[in-house]
Amino acid sequence: MTVDIAIIGAGIAGASVAAAIGDAASVVLIEAESQPGYHSTGRSAAFWSETYGGPGIQPLTTASGPALRDGGFLDSLGALHIGRAEDAAAIESFLADFAGSGVTLERVDPAGLVPGLRPDWTLGVMEPSCAYIDVGGLHAHLLAAARRAGAVVMTDAGLAGAVFADGRWTIDTGREPIQALMLVNAAGAWADTVAARAGVAPIGIRAYRRTVAQIRTDPGAPAGMPHVADIAGRFYFKPEPGGRLWLSPHDETATDPCDAAPEELDVAIAIDRFEGVVDWRVDAVERRWAGLRSFAPDRLPVFGFDTRVPGFFWCAGQGGFGIQTAPAAGALCAALILGGPVPDGLDPSLYAPGRFGPSLR
User: Fold this and answer.
1) Nearest residue to 239 (alpha-carbon basis) of 47, 35, 68
2) Bridge partners of 245?
3) Angstrom distance (rounded) from CA 313 to CA 25
């Protein structure tokens, strides 16, 4: 198979780039698993928050909002950021980080927004724009758009190696040989592994485990309750249909890239922290799972051509923000790959691979 662009990874990152490229180039998506989105994409906590990830992520999230809303992938939720008296400085820093960004943040009394909130949680900031994301629907939409434009999705095709010579990549997946002018590394937690197999120096992208549990409580989560997040980053929980909650201890445990599984201790920590926030009883843990978040050393995504190896493009290090930033990130990467105009409001230099070392170009 000979194509213009080979994308390693068919999760939300690879799918968004392929969809944004459209029919401007021939594309193959190469996925190691039997189904796209098995790892991070399929295990997302499924919310869109303009403040999630900090000021460096916010422009990508905000720029993705119109496409997500117009596509019907967002449902109103709202986010309440809460703290105790000792968290006052963190609240002020949070508000300062997004001053002038266009993100609406409102100081509120959290007591009236979360039934049974314990009295020491006195500080609150409301983020009205926060929304649920239909992750599965978005991912399927992007893959379908890529296929309609002619992209081939190849599953059960792990990258064994890739060599750049005579202006093109020869890619070994253990199946038919693939030749491509460009190789896009959208392999998530495996991004550095893919780079090494292509003879490209790794950037230092690390994988971290994040735990989520679905719990049943008494009382059940009321309709209309917002997503609730600790300003100090020790937990978050959000309502789900049937009065259930999705709860996370906001953990980040360094791990090798793997099929992540939850640890009982992390679930217990999440419940203990939750019980310190509200006076509800946890009746059951109905499901638990873990996913991988992957970060570059400065915790910003890496979008752009490698500075040392021609035709190698990084689309990696999206942390836990790859779903909510997918439309804008895909459009930005496609613009850089094709040489088109960069989407308004985005500064590609913030995410360029060259920030990790001197450019050899």
Assistant:
1) 47
2) 215, 239
3) 15
Q: Given this model, what pLDDT does residue 257 score?
A: 93
Q: What is the pLDDT of residues 18-43, one digit of tens each?
A: 999 999 999 999 999 988 877 656 56
Instruction: Report the C-alpha gap between 31 and 36 in whole angstroms.
Output: 6
Give the Cα separation of 107 and 123 in Å (integer): 8
Q: Give, as one character, the DSSP assignment of residue 144.
A: H
> How many angstroms separate the CA atoms of 47 and 79, rounded?
10
d(CA 220, CA 225): 11
CA distance 351 to 301: 6
**Is 359 a residue whose pLDDT tops 60?**
no
With beta carbons less than 8 A apart as the criterion, state whether 290 and 43 touch. yes
Residue 47 pLDDT > 50 = yes
Residue type for position 174: G
The stretch 298-324 carries a mean pLDDT of 95
| HEC letters along 3-60 | EEEEEECCCHHHHHHHHHHHHHCCEEEECCCCCCCCCCHHHCCCEECCCCCCCCCHHH
Which residue(s) pair with 180 in the sheet? 3, 169
